[in-house]
Amino acid sequence: MRPVTIFRHIRCEGPGYLAEVLDRQAIPYRIIEVDNHEDIPDSIEDSAGLVFMGGPMSVNDPLPWIEQELALIRMAQDKGLPVLGHCLGGQLISRALGGTISANPVKEIGWHPVRKAETAAATDWLHGLPAQPILFHWHGETFSIPEGAELLLENDNCAHQAFAIGNTLALQCHVEMTAPMVSEWAELYQDELQQVTASVQSATQMTTRLSERIRAAQQVADRLYQRWLKAVLDQS
To answer: 134 exposed, middle or buried (CB, 10 Å; 0-12, 13-18, 19+)?
Structure first.
């Protein structure tokens, strides 16, 4: 089976729980360490799916690898190859498919509820999940929904939390989190936590009852990842 290709943009924002899911199912994957200047492939032929992780940079930044990744997403969409994006990765998918990336009305950091959208795609991708699961967030920008895509998740802080189009899933929220990742981000990005608001939690708030929150969030991740992996397995 061809591997899933995962693009990492900063060391602390790796595949996290997604890697655990892939390992459990013996689905091979390789990580392209963009943060270590690893070459970005110019073809999708040897991949069963593409995954784009998060990062503190913006899709609007003039970074050379952004255009390379956008080109890969467009290739994959044209061929029906599954694509998955987390936060920055979701924004890359939106931009590649004609969407725009702009400042969100508020920064959203920490554990916040999301709601299922009233779309056919949401019914498909989120079947069996609670109506308002609590997921982890860390973003100041947001994506628009590209033409032909359907909204999956929303909340009061950010109108567009996830969308799907064909075999492509774009997430603004972070379903890939593990407990160590939450603690690490709270330490590494502590400068963003100086002003606590209704949408920005303190490090103490986001690490309280962490194991319980992670377990609940990973139930959502399991559903989304399994739905996405159906298309990946079809590539084998």
So the answer is: middle
Q: Is the pLDDT at 235 greater than 90, yes or no?
A: no
Q: Which residues contact 192 (CB under 8 A, 6 or more apart)?
A: 107, 109, 138, 200
3-state helix, strand, coil in the chain (%, to 5): 35, 25, 40
Percent of the chain whose pLDDT exceeds 70: 100
Enter the pTM of the model.
0.98
The domain in which residue 86 lies consists of: 4-234
Residues 6 or more apart in contact with residue 136 via CB below 8 angstroms: 110, 111, 173, 174, 175, 177, 182, 206, 213, 217
Task: Give mean pLDDT, residues 119-132.
Answer: 96
- Quote the longest CA-to-CA distance of the chain: 48
Contacts 24+ apart (CB under 8 A), 213-220: 213/111, 213/134, 213/136, 214/177, 214/178, 214/179, 214/182, 216/133, 216/134, 217/133, 217/134, 217/135, 217/136, 217/175, 217/177, 218/17, 218/175, 219/129, 219/133, 220/129, 220/133, 220/135, 220/175
Asked whether the beta carbons of 132 and 80 are under 8 A apart, the reply is no
The pLDDT value recorded for residue 125 is: 97
Structural domain count, the chain? 1
Asked if 141 and 58 touch (Cβ cutoff 8 Å), the reply is yes
Distance CA 231, CA 66 (A): 25
